Amino acid sequence: xxxxxxIGLEVHTQLSTNTKIFSGASTAFGAxxxxxxxAVSIALPGVLPVLNKGAVERAIKFGLATGARIAQRSVFxxxxxxxxxxxxxxxxxxxxxxxxxxGALTIQVEPxxxxxxxxxxxxxITRAHLEEDAGKSVHGNSQGVTGIDLNRAGTPLLEIVSEPxxxxxxEAVAYAKALHTLVRWIGICDGNMQEGSxxxxxxxxxxxxxxxxxxxxxxxxxxxxKFMQQAIDYEVxxxxxxxxxxxxxxxxxxxxxxxxxxTRAMRSKEDAHDYRYFPDPDLLPLEISTEWIExxxxxxxxLPQAKQARYVSELGLSAYxxxxxxxxxxxxxxxxxxxxDATGQAKICANWIIGEVSAQLNRDGLDMTQCPINAQQxxxxxTRIADxxxxxxxxxxxxxxxxxxxxxxxxxxxxxxxxxVSDSGAIEALVDEIIAANADKVTExxxxxxxxxxxxxxxxxxxxxxKANPAQLNDILKKKLAG
Amino acid sequence: MLNASIKQLSAALRxxxxxxxxxxxxxxxxxxxxxxxxxxxxxxxxxxSLAQARAADARLAAGMADPLTGIPVAQKDIFCAKGWLxxxxxxxxxxxxxxxxxxxxxxxxxxxxxxxxxxxxxxxAMGSSNETSHYGTVxxxxxxxxxxxxxxxxxxxxxxxxxxxxxxxTDTGGSxxxxxxxxxxxxxxxxxxxxxxxxxxxxxSSLDQAGPMGRxxxxxxxxxxxxxxxxxxxxxxxxxxxxxxxxxLNKSLxxxxxxxxxxxxxxxxxxxxxxxxxxxxxxxxxxxxVIVDISLPNTKLSIPVYYVLAPAEASSNLSRFDGVRYxxxxxxxxxxxDMYEKSRAQGFGAEVKRRIMIGTYVLSxxxxxxxxxxxxxxxxxxxxxxxxxxxxxxxxMGPTSPSTAFKLGEKGDDPxxxxxxxxYTIAVNLAGLPGMSIPCGFGANDMPVGLQIIGNYFDxxxxxxxxxxxxxxxxxxxxxxxx
Lengths: 483, 483
Prior knowledge:
- The complex is a heterodimer of chains A (483) and B (483).
- Chain A has 483 residues and is an alpha+beta fold.
- In chain A, 39% of the residues lie in helices and 20% in strands.
- In chain B, 38% of the residues lie in helices and 13% in strands.
- The A-B interface holds A 39, 42-51, 78, 80, 82, 84, 87-90, 148, 274, 276-278, 281-284 and B 79-80, 86, 88, 93, 96, 98-100, 102, 197-202, 204-206, 232-236, 312-313, 315-316, 318-322, 324-326, 336, 340, 360, 363-365, 368, 372.
């Protein structure tokens, strides 16, 4: 029996403002409990929310980056429910008038199995809205007592809701990853999944081809791509098994347990809340002028897809290289800075970054932001390769030294004497000596034993202690051997 | 001295005829003597008040006094004042000592006024008789068997009984004007947004507005000068030029067009009130005013609209009182839900619970459109009634309350009868307009009658002028109850 999988995502991205969405309290992660809970965060009687413009600006950025319409007027609503870590007894969110309207994100999907080829897909984004985060209940510190930490209460979130456009775990993961890249790329979220800066809720349902949508279950709070894939795989199989064995799917909120690899229901639709949304009378409708939007547009960096296309069309890189270099903003920035104006060196620059730099980072367990060499250092080395100062093997030596000890390419070349000989007179003299000392081999070569050319190159390189400019050496050797 | 105006007291303080400490002490002595009969105050803090008085005397001596420096002013217990018990008339906040100052408190502190004490009020400002206070009923100083009105009943009684020079109130549906009328004093509810709501415990955020209560329009102007002004901590606070509300006090009323809405003089208005109000209108004619008959056709809808919108907002505003972080928590409970239920069941009084239930109901899924949305639409119609009326007149006048003060317990069993006592005041809040009440005579049981003056948006200075000219021509405002 054939099954179709239908997946939609709701992603909570924590916006990278220094202060909370409705107060001046700090949003820094990891502080002592309740040290960042001001009067507004703990909802003292009489306090009022004041909207943080920085959060709005980040929402606008996201909307522009996904080609969405920015609402000129959006409304904050109260979502009412009781929970100890929700100090006001309601969460300020947006309901029927969100700040960001329909947009889209194009993703590259790498199928997880078989020989299927990577493909591109566009996922529609339904909306994105601003809201405040809740605090945390801390269980188990002392017997029978639950602690409440309100440091996180009021942290700005942008909830990004997709259409149910994804039809496999691979697509869902690809979408989540693309979103993760994008929000960091445009600088609205630090993307730290361990600290909860990027949390995914995944709605999953299955149906037989041609049938209406099945009942969905929502997997809450996934904070790793690996878990997302495992959770979806498990959930899909569970739903299929349930239906095939005559059961029915009931709408529910479920949790994924990474230890068992299973999902389990948290609450069913029957005990779903009636949140009694209504416009928050403490906040005026959010008005966003065209000027504000344009001002934000001016701060938007070139987006990954545009960059990728430009790398192919202007720099002549392969689509593959371009996609790797634009996997993160740090990588792309590093590439562009190292390349500088030497656009003709794009391929070699790309090779070094995708090859040596990435491999070393991997080996040392570092990411691009922790890279021990900076783009200028690599760029300096590339310049010396291009102008013939160092050979490829010399460059490898320079790179190793740079990585381990630091320093500029020029300083390392100088200190280690890696400058290759490009003085044709010196090379000619060296070649002349070799020809004189190996008359028999020269005769063999001239009688047609072409393979001996490598033998002469080897001798000449050895004589120059590896410093002879290989291209020049080849030319001179060829000329002289020809007699 | 007890009957001196703020202007006279301020002059006496500057002239060193009396010190603020002496003035404050004399009020405190009077409070100790008379408050037990009236129960106008919930909290006194003589040491703090006297310390403020000493600071005011120093400021007066240094020649740096504001008009309110050294003047003892009582604060409705809805305003958070740092270090003061701030109960909002509720058991729920029986132990809440505010760690911060409301904007209004800060303004008075900056002006050098003395906080004389926190006045009694209906619980969470929900009531028209002051009978819903957890701290006992306030008695009307003109007849202790009668109510002082509500919710700012403690303030109105304190001003009428000369237990303070002036005081603050808040008005969500008439809570300044109705008790002012019933206690024979002057009170002004400004245009919504003129006085910051920061630190004023919320009842219905879109309707709540703080204002001054005192013995004359001239006093109110001085108080409003201190209370009004933009505050960035309240998003609904209006950013306007600072104005002097006393600037027009002495303007002539010749040619003033007074609109009399026929709906305010229809069935339900008691004869004695009608008679006093008509006499006041006659007085205004003598002062040169012109009478215009107008209609506010949606007046009768204001009560049902109000009793949908105000409880809706209140049901959400009062969710923060959950026993988790501050305030009352039930001594025994079995689990989290039980703690919420018992704390709120024991901490809130009957009227508050009634409104929370009404509000929860009208916001519920399936009822929202029929109640809340519909009420919002009618609210706009009510505001349009006034806009149309102000094309024909400069101010609108009528009774503040349909009757004089009723007996304690008289309407306690019939909430609808109680709600009807706000019939003339509620529409003003729904429209966001400024409204005031001034004494205009006495009714059947020698109880005071209030004349309501409703102005156009931001017309407070004109309203104060209109009231002041009447108070120059009559002496109703200077009558004091025998105690």
